[in-house]
Specification:
It contains 22 helices and 6 strands. It has 2 domains: 485 residues, Sodium/glucose cotransporter (Up-down Bundle), CATH 1.20.1730; 81 residues, no CATH class. The N and C termini lie far apart (57 Å). It is mainly alpha-helical.
Amino acid sequence: MSIQLWTYVMVGATFALYMSIAWVSRVRDTRGFYVAGGGVPPLANGMATAADWMSAASFLGMAGLISFYGYAGCMYLMGWTGGYVLLALLLAPYLRKFGKFTVPDFVGDRYYSGVARLVALVCAVFVSLTYVAGQMRGVGIVFSRFLEVDVNTGVFIGMAIVFFYAGLGGMKGITWTQVAQYGVLIVAFLIPAVAISAKITGVAIPQLGFGSTIVSGPDAGIYLLEKLDQIGTDLGFAAYTTAFGNGSKPMLDVFCITMALMVGTAGLPHVIVRFYTVPTVRGARLSAVYAILFIAVLYTTAPAVAAFARYNLINSLNDVAYTQAPNWFRNWERTGLIAWLDKNGDGIVQYRAGTAFAGKPSFTGVTGPNGERMVGNAPSASANELYVDRDIIVLANPEIANLPPWVIALVAAGGLAAALSTASGLLLVIASSISHDLYYRMVNRQATEQQRLRLGRAMIGVAVCVAGYFGIHPPGFVAQVVALAFGLAASSFFPTLVLGIFWKRASREGAIAGMVCGIGFTMLYIVQTKFMGMAPWCFGISPEGIGCVGMLLNFAVTYVVTRMTPAPPQAVQEMVESIRIPRGAGAAIDH
């Protein structure tokens, strides 16, 4: 069968599975809609958390960024992994013991303020919308190649599917769907990684093949990483294993991005809410341990996949006549996510350091003198003739390595599973923030269960439309868009949650001022540098890392304002003390 037919089979079968689970798990009450009834076993919750956590950024974007950045690209891996450990140790058990539905619930009650709840609600919506936009872009990329539709159509298909099972089953349906999605995405990631590792290095374990020698061809006997260093420097790039050489990110920026991803992880509302779905505090801790193990399977494999992909990409395409370009290049060229423009008229694809075009290519439909598809954007001044969208690396890797069509189709299904699992969790956060934290807790305390469920499902629909728009018009690559969401979470939620748990003196005025200043500064910087063309003016820190500065600002403002305002009521301080006692397991309550 062809790749496209295999893709229809694989994607169709997995989607049928997800929708069947959603239908069987459909809910009729808010407790099931928000926290799956609080009865999910820790092992299943660990799998669901891993799927919720490993989004399109992990499955598609992270290996692509490592492949292009080399050593410095591991800042995404280190930040996300370290952040999950931070979340599991510092926040998850205490928030679970508090026993409410949402992060704004905790903020509103801990800081005894409706205004604090509203600010947290706005922060949660902004963070979740930014994050889900990256997932929608990932869905569009997968569909654009394997179903041979344009990226926009792919986004619309993904919007319809995720609305169906997120709106129907709520957290209960999402949880059990994510258990299945974890199985799909991890198998889809590992099978090609194992096959390509064995093919290049003769070692079937990717984590070991990553540090092994190449077994065949002109590079036989050379260590893979050593060869990548040589290739990189020959083509004008920084050496692949160099930390902070020419052409790589500055050390300060790498540190800030890593820290923003780490503390942003610990403040992500869609991950935190997963710890409300287990019956006990012990279950929350245990599910966190399971989730770390499940996440580690993919995260320790990603650097190997990145190295294999870069080696295969350069060997199969660089300095090859365009008329003899491999089939995988022709297939992906039709999506507009890889493009070549013959700058010197020799008909040969030359991949070098630098950008190929002044912006992203847009094909005109006219054929160039050497057969290339002409692009709307002007060429850049660099000698590089090849544009490669970093988000295609994982998806294209099996094709580049000439793996069987069913493996290529399985990777497509895995990429969709990763994107849709996270998108559904994010959409539920948005829905619960509006229907529970805003409408029920602040507008209409007499709202019935059915009214709140209808509003929650309507909000999922609105959020899907907004996320779809930004999936079609993204402000960066998948992992970069997601990194912006982590920065917003780092600058808003992390300081507020940590101080709320470990400093009983923290006041509502301090928390409100800290959240507003932290996320306000971070959003302003992102808008200036991403959308208004302004150069990074804060010590050269990129918008992906500015959340680290916003976090420090939040901590400082909260501390100063708290010292200038009255202490919280005694009842609140006693509640904070009780949260830190590692015993008991109150059910999620709704009052």
